[in-house]
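Re: zinc ion structure - here you go.
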Amino acid sequence: MQVEGVNPEQRTICIDNSASLKSLIALSHEIGHATAFQDMSDEQRERFVEINDTFRKCARYGKSIKKEILNEVLRSERDAWAVAIKLLKPAIKSGLLAKEDLLNYVHSIEGQGLKTYSKAIDRMIEKRLVEN
Ligand SMILES: [Zn+2]
């Protein structure tokens, strides 16, 4: 079961279905990915899917991975968060969402935020699985 994420081939965004601020933040992030897909060719979208699959498989099964793929994964995550933060600005301005909570979510929460990726990458580096 896919917890949270975006699938450009199936044109779906998956988030948990509770109407919490956490869900709103997660949805904004996935919209960030969807926004990036708009400007991509079919080949670029296919590459996005392929790169993310490769990253997940390598992280899960301890397989070696090219540095270039890690950079692409991180770039797409950062770009999606940049869009999410932009989308959520009105919520911050209105006091519905604290900026610190949003940034904490983006950087510190495991399972959804950038920390998940950086921890997985740290483990790959420790195990010398990252190839140039
Ligand atoms: Zn993402």
